[in-house]
Amino acid sequence: MRKVVESRKSEIRYITSDPARMLNKFIARSVLKTWMEEFVDENTGKIVSIERNEILFEKGTLVDNDVLMQIRFWQEEGSVKDVEVSNQKRMSFVRKNQSLFPYKSVVKINDKRHSFLLYATSVQNALTILTDYIELNYNGGFTVSDIKELEYCIVLIDNLKTKKQRNDDINKAYLKNEISLEEFVESGMSEETLNEAEDSSKLKFYQIIARIVSHDDKEGDDEENGTFIVQTYTAVRANMLIKKYLLDQQEKQYQEALKHPERTFIKREINSFIEESKTIPIGRFIPVEFSQVYEYETTTNNN
Length: 303
Description:
- This protein has seven helices and 13 strands.
- By secondary structure, it is an alpha+beta fold.
- Strands 8-6-7-13 form a four-stranded mixed β-sheet. Strands 9-11-10-12 form a four-stranded mixed β-sheet, with helices on one face. A three-stranded antiparallel β-sheet has the order 1-5-2.
- α4 (163-175) runs antiparallel to α5.
- The longest helix is centred in the last third of the chain and has 24 residues, at 235-258.
- It is extended, with a radius of gyration of 29 Å.
- The model is unreliable at 189-198 (pLDDT under 50).
C-alpha cells in the first residue's frame, strides 16, 4: 500500500466556530484575543478606538480538551469568534519583509541566458518583478533558472553626467546667453579630467570591496569595509561614486539631526579606497522605481 505523504495536497483545513470540529485538530493560524481600547488623542482631544491583539495559542498547537475548554471560554467572553484548524501540524510561517534588497537573477529567454540585477523584498517578490519586466521588454518564452540575494551589498548606478554631456550643457547655456563668455571659459577650464571612455556601450558592473575611512580631528580615524556593485565606466570612477554615496548618506543624517536639537552630529571627512575590484556578468539593471511598485506587496502569511 502506497504511503500517504503529508503535504498541502493532503491537508484538510477550515475555519470554524464549532468546538466539536476543532477537537484533536491543529491550530492553523495563531488564535488571537481581540478587543478595542480607547484613548484620548492629545492633538485633537477626541476619543480614538484602537484594536488590540494578544496571542492565546500559537500556530501548530494541538486542540486537546484543555485547549478546547480555554477556546470556549474566550468565545463566550467575546474575544474569539472563529478558529482556523488543520489535520496537519504546521508551525512555521513566512516572515514578512518590506525593505528592498539587491538580487541577481539568471533567466533563459528563448534558450539564451540573460542576467538581471534588481531590488526586491524576497525571492517570491523578485520573481514577480522579473516576470512583469520581462513580459514588457522581451519576446518569447522564458524560465527563471536562478535568483540569489546579494547580501551586505549596495548597488550604485552611474547617473552622473559624462564630460560630453556637461560640455553640451555648457555650450547650450552659452548659446542661449544664460552664462557669460567668462563663465563659459571658466567652466571649461575647471572641468575634471577623468581619462575615461564615457560611452554608454562601455558601461560595466564592478563588484568592489572598499576600505572606508572616516576622519574626525578629535576622535581620529574609523575604518570599515563595504561591498558595492557599481555600474559605470571604470573602477576609478566607481570609487568616486562610492565616495559620493557615502557623503550623501552623511548629509542626510546631518539634515535629520538638525530637526532634533538634542542630538549631536559631527560631520567627518570620508574617503574610500579600493581593496578588491572585478567586473561581474550582469546584463541589465531593473530600475528601482519598477521594483518599488511591488515593494509593499504582501505575501500570504499563515500565522
